[in-house]
Amino acid sequence: MAKSRLIGDYPVIGIRPTIDGRRGVLKVRESLEDQTMNMAKSAAKLFEENIRYSNGEPVKVVIADTTIGRVAESAACADKFRKEGVDITLTVTPCWCYGAETMDMDPNTIKAVWGFNGTERPGAVYLASVLATHAQKGLPAFGIYGHDVQEADDTSIPADVEEKLLRFGRAAVACATMRGKSYLQIGSVTMGIGGSIINTDFFEDYLGMRVESVDEVEIIRRMTEGIYDEEEYQKALAWTKEKCIEGFDKNPEELQKTRDQKDSEWEFVVKMMCIIKDLMNGNDKLPAGCEEEMVGHNAIVAGFQGQRQWTDFYPNCDYPEALLNTSFDWNGAREPYVLGTENDTLNATSMLFMKLLTNRAQIFADVRTYWSPEAVKKATGYDLEGVAKEAGGFIHLINSGAACLDACGEAKDENGNGVMKPWYEVTEEDQDAIMKATTWNYADLGYFRGGGFSSRFETKVEMPATMIRLNIVKGLGPVLQIAEGWTVGLPAEVSDKLWKRTDYTWPCTWFAPRTTGEGAFKTAYDVMNNWGANHGAISYGHIGADLITMASMLRIPVCMHNVPEEKIFRPAAWNAFGMDKEGADYRACANFGPQFKK
């Protein structure tokens, strides 16, 4: 689909068909060869047809050259997988096997085992045995076992098995894609926000990433010395003038800038976006003599400090943040970047998790205001309906800058419903509709003394959405919060009255979480009241179950979620840490610890 912007190959899934090693007159092994290898082929086909890397290409899957019945074949498989770059393994079998001899012993691979539910051979017995051995050796693995008995010659994958295989595959590919990449912070701490105080141990120990830092003055140096791609800049500027609709200026008339000053600031922010891209991933088209700058920082995610040292003097970064996080630009549809506003490293990383799971653009927002039904009625005279009524209100998600433009919901599916698509499905019609629904309003000079332009749109349609936040607690480590729900479409006059009570020039999304009537999800108020920070990352779709699986792979406990219990899928060893699933998650994560801790 598209060339990867990052150095390093994408992770590969390796499938290990294990088999009963006994030969002899009964030909036990020989009778199982076809069935075992067919399981591997079926799983490979499922992965290849349903999982894509972030650049849009189908995931690469390799299968061991032979079935694995004894340790020599395990070693041959491991050797092949090392050469193929395998980071994720799925062991499959319809029968009994010698567990400790046939299991994946690599401590750095993400592991699952699928045991066929059949009656002819004890696949379930092997599954239970080898999962116990994984736990005993401190190598957690996910166990997959179908609900219903299948015939021995049935090569189909039951729906419940398929769901778990794909959940495992999506989460594992997302986790492994981050390894060896960088978080690039441009600047440092923003207005005392804890999330922008970067925790290098977290990135290194839990994600296998490195942290890179450059001062914001590097952007000015590159502008001043002409260290950018002039051809791309001119193309970007022409596209911006054609496609970006300038909105109203809310500042007092005597403070408003002249047309020439605003045009100059447009040139500044477009050039700024080009330079941030180059900082993240390099650019071999930079001028001769800039070979050092050409290489970039191999950043899969970045953050920009901005406030206040930058924004008190220079135009803000809202244009680069919004467009980089969007699924297209002047070159058409392309893989979204992840650039967090205010260098909130934890919210930007939350966005990264969901981008890698969905290949969709992500929303960065303040979790700003809870509106109760009574408060809405008092302010507007409107009685809440639908999901907002069911949730006992809704939450206003709004912040300047980093919300992707896709969040306006103007892209349409085949039935005309507003959606946020995987980037490789975004059409030119979608792009035009999104740009027409967005205005670029001159910056609020009370916030941004240096000027700039903020994207402005409203999410007017109801879409399934998941809001998450990664937090770090001293003595505990990282924890993840997950709230599935829906964006809320309000009548225009109601939305306007509520929106105007805060900043009317910023992107606006109303969000109603799915409530349960108890605990942190009793009502939308309780979700807001239990949220762990001022920011949230929001993705299209209900992907909480995938996030729980992904968090367990990273050894990050989930402290708050509203995912149905039957959808929760964690490594089998988690069952040994108690009958309360969330407490067991904490204990298991603490016991096994981060995979890359030195």
From TrEMBL:
Keyword Transcription attached: no
Positions annotated to bind Mn(2+): E342, D366, H535
Enzyme class, broadest EC rank: isomerase
Manganese found in the keyword field: yes
Keywords assigned: Carbohydrate metabolism, Cytoplasm, Fucose metabolism, Isomerase, Manganese, Metal-binding
Domain named L-fucose isomerase N-terminal-2: residues: 181-359
Catalytic residues as annotated in Swiss-Prot or TrEMBL: E342, D366
GO molecular function list: L-fucose isomerase activity
Record field: catalytic activity: L-fucose = L-fuculose
Subcellular location as annotated: Cytoplasm
Function: Converts the aldose L-fucose into the corresponding ketose L-fuculose.
Name of this protein: L-fucose isomerase
Species this chain originates from: Ruminococcus hominis
